[in-house]
Amino acid sequence: MLVKLAVLFSGNGSNLENLIKKLHKKSFGKNEFEIALCLCNKHNAYGIKRAKKLGLETVIIEHKNFVSREEFDSVLVGEIQKSKADLAVLVGFMRILTPIFTQNIKAINIHPSLLPLFKGANAIKESYQSDMKVAGITVHWVSSELDSGKIIAQKAFDKTENMSFEDFEAKIHALEHELLPESIRKIFE
Ligand code: GRF
Fold this sequence. Notes:
Layout: E1 2-9, H1 14-23, E2 27-28, E3 31-40, H2 46-53, E4 58-60, H3 69-83, E5 87-90, H4 99-102, E6 107-111, H5 123-129, E7 134-141, E8 151-158, H6 165-187
Parallel strand pairs: 1-3, 1-5, 3-4, 5-6
Antiparallel strand pairs: 2-3, 6-7, 7-8
Helix pairs in contact: 1-6
The chain binds 5-O-phosphono-beta-D-ribofuranosylamine.
5-O-phosphono-beta-D-ribofuranosylamine binds near residues 16, 91, 92 and 176.
């Protein structure tokens, strides 16, 4: 089966780049993956350049041009449906989604903590600063409540005493780059 993905991002785009490199036009068993849509809500996001370098254009829909979340979401939904994506993948897409999105689009999200701990936009910092001895990442289904949908997969690592914030963040991203493509492949197996 040809599996079409829509990838939504807002900034740096390292996960987007990783997905393009690992899944786009690649076959695993009987599935071939195609990133049918790159979608971003910020015109100056670095991820747009990353995708372009790899031959993919990004559709930019700026949320600030809409008067309500619902109006923005209905345009997003339209664009994703037009792409015929089987799954939307949120990789640092910094928007709170309304039911207009969550009830119409099958989507997963990658979050840089061991959910249900450290929901929200400051997960990496909060998890680094916590007293916990382990940290990690989560891939989960997107639901109407922020960072709260059913968990698909997690990876944890030991947080050592002398680990700098930079090392901690790099570890998180390295794990994300393994777990997200692996999780997407498994969803369609
Ligand atoms: C990742 O840490 C992801 O878990 C979070 O946003 C970050 C996006 O990073 N949701 P990048 O833009 O893919 O580099």
